[in-house]
């Protein structure tokens, strides 16, 4: 795993993770259960750099297995695969007999050579993540293994300097993390207020008619071949191209650029696009262009004599529909909303003129909320950049 090395301050040295560790170990392979004799830490139990031990399931193990996989203070735990591959957490105050699962890797730092907190901070640096990203590029499933981890080269300061750096990083990054947490709460609040307003404006009135989606809407069902000349230069939309709630389209490429070969649905600007499958379940867009979309997206065409396209867009974003969709998609495998369940959705539909008025009010509200969200997102990006810059400076001896 190639890393770009740089000149270190006097007294610093480059050392591999292998040299700085007593042990690099994979976790135990088993299924979690509710009444085991040991807490069983999994990738999904590590959220935002924290572990809620109350929510961690258990596993049944013999004493020798518990001893082999037991988590101790100052162990470093890494996610091996998936979207969080490479992310780590320093274990502190784990429950007695807590063990870790097979999709995690444990590193036990050698405290004679390195302070665990110092090593833990290294695994947050841009330099570390750049190498992880290079390794994951082109892989169907991002991953990192024990061998790759052991080969990482760490800039190691003298012990006294390590202690000073850890104390400085603790103080600076705690302030930044607190600010980030508050901003994230503000983003969540803005979205919640918008959803609340949406629910209020779609609340049943006496003169509204009860209908099923099938009564006022159709789904395009005929797939096209994106390799045909008429589609090659059309933009292709997948779930990842649709931003949550606002429905803005981002990062679009043509069928030619993406070299698509599988069937796609054609769409135009009279339709609403609804992503029917996780991880993009319930993303909704009202495109201003014609193009082609993933077969995992429903292109919905409202009957314009009965339903305004914008009203359909907001209806599919409402808590009323979202809850219905989740209940219908909660099954094993890859949860999705099937056509029958979608069309059976019942709701109260205002007259067409009233739909237009409701949508105009919601458009204004969405625009204002998006402005606030973009401002908050910009501040979050600045703080994330500041945090990365501080970490980079720390491991170059410039903090």
UniProtKB/TrEMBL annotation:
InterPro entries documented for this protein: Restrct_endonuc_typeI_TRD (IPR000055), Restrct_endonuc_typeI_TRD_sf (IPR044946), Type-I_RE_S_subunit (IPR051212)
Enzyme Commission identifier(s): 3.1.21.-
CDD domains listed in its UniProt record: RMtype1_S_Sau13435ORF2165P_TRD2-CR2_like
Molecular-function GO term, any one: endonuclease activity
Residue ranges occupied by any Type I restriction modification DNA specificity domain in the UniProt entry: 32-178, 206-376
Gene3D superfamilies: DNA methylase specificity domains
Broadest EC class assigned to this enzyme: hydrolase
Keywords: DNA-binding, Endonuclease, Hydrolase, Nuclease, Restriction system
Family to which the UniProt record says this protein belongs: Belongs to the type-I restriction system S methylase family.
Name recorded for this polypeptide: Restriction endonuclease subunit S
